[in-house]
């Protein structure tokens, strides 16, 4: 970090990863809440000696050493900040005034300040200690395990729909005639896809939640995940309710087909050239948004997933363990795996091929906007031609 970069941070103002603290004569006490929230979210930059109006007030020269010492002592005290953090404040002279810069990295554990858990939302620090859902999501982001890998030792393969497994096997073999699934039994297929695992606590084997979501009978899914559904809505004439609707509560393989059919029913099939190649813009966009909402949502949440088609756009919403916030930069965006076991099966049968961001750039899509929020993911795809 240098003086020019510090000035750019000040000029751009406070946001989800930038915070200003005046701290002219003493250290602002709420700076530790910000350190905690940055560490729990995606990291960030703290500037001491700058007020909320982006004015450089500076830290008194006589107080700089005291402020830095007080800060470093506090964040290394496990009774105050847990886990203790090792941060190195830097001092810069900007416009003849002293500004202290602190870079807070993203942490690998949940951070607490005085026993309270703080998270970052846009320009503010939020105390989420008493919000069980937000705390759960924070822990889920920090740990390396996945909710859909939950093992059910007391459930066997009979809990699954054999016809859906056979359909999946046929789809895989149609793409690759030498696919290893062709001659496997249902159990062998599930093991090869890591859909039968061992519960590390009980040491017993069982099918996973991912297996139930992918291949389960409808009543089986409802017995382990009653909140599971995708609400497909067509809303053009009746803006307050809907013109057509399909509430999809079946397994993910059949859910994919039903959501695609719903989109095909209500969107135009246009002649579109991608370079010199004729492409089916409607189906390419539908394939990517449907596979994304099914493969990458947070299934632990009760937030209802939706695919809404209106007269100018397709909007898709689902619960999400976000690893960022705000509008996504389509040039720099990199996907983060949410449910690898589900994505693997989708990939084997050809339901995941490209990238939603790439598909948004096909010629018929005149504008695309994808927004990643703290608790759910929202995608909006606009086109002047698909909705005529």
UniProtKB/TrEMBL annotation:
<dbReference type="InterPro" id="IPR007421">
    <property type="entry name" value="Schlafen_AlbA_2_dom"/>
</dbReference>
<feature type="domain" description="Schlafen AlbA-2">
    <location>
        <begin position="14"/>
        <end position="121"/>
    </location>
</feature>
<dbReference type="Pfam" id="PF04326">
    <property type="entry name" value="SLFN_AlbA_2"/>
</dbReference>
<protein>
    <submittedName>
        <fullName>Divergent AAA domain protein</fullName>
    </submittedName>
</protein>
<dbReference type="InterPro" id="IPR038475">
    <property type="entry name" value="RecG_C_sf"/>
</dbReference>
<dbReference type="InterPro" id="IPR038461">
    <property type="entry name" value="Schlafen_AlbA_2_dom_sf"/>
</dbReference>
């Amino acid at each position: 970090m240098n003086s020019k970069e510090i000035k750019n941070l000040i000029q751009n103002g406070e946001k989800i990863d930038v915070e200003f603290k005046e701290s002219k004569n003493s250290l602002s006490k709420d700076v530790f809440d910000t350190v905690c929230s940055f560490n729990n979210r995606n990291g960030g930059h703290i500037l001491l000696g700058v007020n909320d109006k982006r004015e450089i007030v500076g830290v008194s020269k006589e107080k700089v050493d005291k402020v830095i010492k007080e800060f470093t002592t506090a964040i290394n005290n496990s009774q105050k900040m847990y886990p203790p953090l090792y941060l190195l404040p830097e001092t810069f002279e900007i416009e003849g005034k002293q500004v202290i810069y602190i870079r807070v990295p993203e942490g690998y554990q949940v951070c607490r300040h005085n026993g309270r858990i703080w998270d970052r939302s846009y320009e503010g620090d939020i105390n989420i200690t008493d919000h069980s859902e937000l705390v759960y999501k924070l822990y889920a982001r920090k740990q390396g395990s996945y909710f859909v890998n939950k093992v059910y030792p007391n459930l066997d393969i009979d809990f699954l729909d054999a016809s859906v497994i056979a359909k999946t096997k046929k789809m895989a073999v149609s793409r690759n005639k030498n696919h290893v699934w062709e001659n496997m039994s249902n159990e062998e297929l599930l093991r090869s896809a890591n859909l039968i695992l061992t519960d590390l606590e009980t040491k017993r084997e069982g099918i996973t939640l991912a297996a139930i979501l992918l291949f389960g009978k409808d009543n089986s899914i409802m017995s382990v995940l009653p909140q599971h559904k995708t609400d497909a809505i067509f809303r053009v004439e009746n803006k307050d309710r809907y013109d057509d609707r399909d509430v999809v509560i079946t397994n993910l393989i059949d859910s994919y087909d039903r959501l695609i059919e719903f989109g095909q029913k209500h969107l135009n099939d246009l002649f579109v050239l991608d370079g010199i190649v004729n492409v089916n813009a409607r189906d390419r966009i539908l394939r990517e948004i449907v596979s994304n909402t099914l493969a990458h949502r947070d299934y632990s949440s009760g937030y209802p997933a939706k695919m809404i088609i209106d007269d100018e756009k397709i909007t898709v919403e689902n619960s999400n363990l976000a690893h960022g916030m705000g509008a996504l930069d389509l040039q720099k965006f990199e996907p983060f795996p949410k449910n690898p076991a589900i994505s693997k099966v989708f990939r084997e049968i050809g339901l995941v091929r490209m990238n939603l961001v790439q598909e948004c750039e096909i010629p018929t899509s005149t504008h695309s906007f994808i927004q990643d929020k703290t608790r759910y993911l929202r995608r909006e795809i606009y086109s002047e031609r698909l909705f005529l």
